[in-house]
Please model this.
Amino acid sequence: MHAICLDAVSVDFDGRFQLSDINWVIEPGQHWLVTGTNGSGKSALVAALAGVGERVSGTWSGVPERVALVSYERQAELIEAERRKDDADILDVISEGTPVGEIIDAVCQDRDLANELVDTLGLRPLIDRAFRKLSTGETRKVMLIRALTSQPDLLVLDEPFDGLDCDSLAWLQDYLRVLATTVPMVIVLNRFDEIPEFITHVAYVADGHLRHRVERSDEPSMAALYQLLHLKTSDLEVPQADPADRLPALNPSDPLVRISDAAIRYDENTVFEHLDWTIETNQHWQLSGPNGSGKTGLLSLITGDHPQCYVNDIFVFGFQRGTGESIWQIKQYIGYVSTALQWEYRVGTGLRNVIISGFFDSIGLYSKSTDMQKAIADEWLALLGMSGRADEPFSGLSFGDRRLVLIARAMVKHPPLLILDEPCLGLDDMNRQLVLALIERICASNETAVLYVNHRSQDAIRGIDNHLTLSSEAAS
Amino acid sequence: MANYFNTLPLREQLAELGKCRFMHLDEFTEGVDALKGKKIVVIGCGAQGLNQGLNLRDSGLDVSYTLRAEAIEQQRQSWKNATSNGFAVGTYEELLPTADVVLNLTPDKQHTPVVNAIMPLMKHGACLSYSHGFNIVEEGMQIRDDITVIMVAPKCPGSEVRAEYVRGFGVPTLIAVHEDNDPNGEGLALAKAYAVGTGGHKAGVLMSSFVAEVKSDLMGEQTILCGMLQTGSLLCFDKMIEEGIDAGYASKLIQYGWETTTEALKYGGVTNMMDRLSNPAKIRAFDLTEQMKDIMRPLYWKHQDDIMTGTFSSGMMEDWANDDAKLLGWRADTAETAFEKTPAGDVEISEQEYFDNGILMVAMVKAGVELAFETMTAAGIIADSAYYESLHETPLIANTVARKKLYEMNATISDTAEYGCYLYNHACVPLLGEFMKGISTDVIGKGLDLSDTGVDNARLIEVNAAIRSHPVEAIGGVLRGYMADMKQII
Model:
């Protein structure tokens, strides 16, 4: 047995869907689990192994002759084929359709095994029934028997546990465990709690690309993959703000931010000058520009963290800066996430407290929190897939998880303005997608204006249509 | 000018020394209101001046800086600090006549000339704030009767005053009103608003007096806080080298040992620090402490006496007048000591090993804390003040030694503290000479050879009872309880 190698393979499925640039190596002895959201292409990917679709580019090798595929699509095709037989009624006789026994025999390589499986799965009484008249669960069992008795060199199972009754499910899991010692398998599952023991690797598919390949023994990556799937698929809503702690209302006719003829200067060095910028309520902005063009400086004029905010003409959240307002009156309207914040957030406290600190705009928690605030923080943890970890120390989290918790901290009060200063900086691909998935859910679900600083086109967020670009030379 | 403290009758001296109260958060509900709309002018733009000003401005207050005309003309660092942060800067003549509150954040030594220069320019009924009472209490500076005089002293370096504020917290802060200069009875309201403006109210405010602040602050910094750490560092290092311990190891054990062992002090007082030792080591440390306390007690008394009578400050002022000859000489001597010149070795020392192999250091901290506390309270300083100026601040100073040894400690503390530290060190090193001859590596460098960790029950009970019943432990338990209420819920 050789390794199966897909090298930059693209596959077209009747122009309806395309798998792009798939790089995948399945070594002998490996058993893969394929995950992804609905429509991501995970079923297409495994079907391609069974020869479905048209390969338009790339090379592959080592894919065995006999690949058995069990999937809803394959099941539907077979039923459709049966139905077409019915329609072909030129003989003017009513077709009974192909009986179950024949459907099984058509591909069977091991009659004894087929008989045994028919009995085990309770299909004996149905053996002469027309295949197309079976229930969905029964057809699924027939498909499984066909696959298992075909002596495949590779067994591809797309959601094999779906629709099976408890007894059949338990039997199938046992059976696959034994079979795994001799036959390599690729299985599509959407639920991590059903992963069979013998699975050695997990693949994650998104937008027709094979995004991640994770070894099962790599626990941190498995945990991140689980979270990604959770964020992409969970029904949980973004938690509400604290009803008992509403922000003072803003005048709806004012912009959130209005900066006029602003400059930042250090000694002789002018970072930028003559800058005008207005951010209206609900407007999403992307801010870009090369290093040193003053992006972070500009943001900190808004947040009040830059001391030169007092010598510029800045109107934020109803306050003209430098007229006796405190920075805490400004910060209450802003959620803020950056790599610098993550470096500064070196407080030995638990995840729940870190999220609650967002209500107080503090690094660390120095005020007593209410039961409501605790409950909201726990809802955020649930959304992040971190339920039950509320008291774990923040410092013990992975870099990517810390970023997620800080985004929740920024959003916990539903600020009118959410500033994300390169929120994906320093994150690996999986964690970047985790962060983007969370931000997209936030953008989609509430009334916050998002101000997003980002360099990389692949980290674009849907729904941001205003752009401000700072140039490297001063006086843009 | 006469020493102000010495002009007071005994009962007033005792009353002033006895002032120190931990204020509760609900005493600060008026926030910065008392300073709202007032023009605050800061003199000096060093670390304290700049960072306090940044905090006050971010709290919605009107802050500008006044510097001497030369500093402005020559665009010195203080001018750059203020202008690059967007503050208005002006000369004394330009800013002081309209100032409502003037914050004097210059070093002690400059107070007399600075205050003499600004007083004629200050408007009637304005407020002058200090961050240390030396000028008023020791130098006897007389402030014009119409001027309100207060003190607001954040108990941390300027950089931390800013960093904690930005995090949404603050640093513990001492406030006081100079009763002789509170013509409108508004001193306390102004001091409280100032403490809120710097974020100090969130971390805990102590209301004290100028006298108590000066007399306890001087005593603490000279003896346990800086003096004992310097003397201990030098003696322990030389002993280890003499006994053949690797120099890099010895250097590291001391440089980081103070910080590590006093961290235990911060959490649970002397009791907890001693509990980090094994039972035999604890009994050993206790015995060493008792011996050292007997040897050093007269020295602690002398320091306190000299502080109370003004002998210390007049001696230091003579050195000021002599271009800091003594201070600079002692500073140079310190830089030449073997401990300072030996870098910490590249060896792993676990947290527990600092205790196990540093029994003598633990004993020195215990002896210094207890002696300073006992001496201060015997001199009439209230236990609360004595606690803060001994046990509470020891870990803060120990952190500076961990950063860059004695150099860093002496650079971070005030010139006044540094002068007092050297004074103590010069007396204490020879004083402990005979005692150190009896010391070997089992209590510094290698730890006890503990094939048997058994101890006598009766002796252990006796030692534990003595540790736990010391008065510094009683007040410490109460004050740490307050702090825990206010501080992180973490």
Observations:
- Residues 429-445 of chain A form the longest helix (17 residues).
- The radius of gyration of chain A is 29 Å.
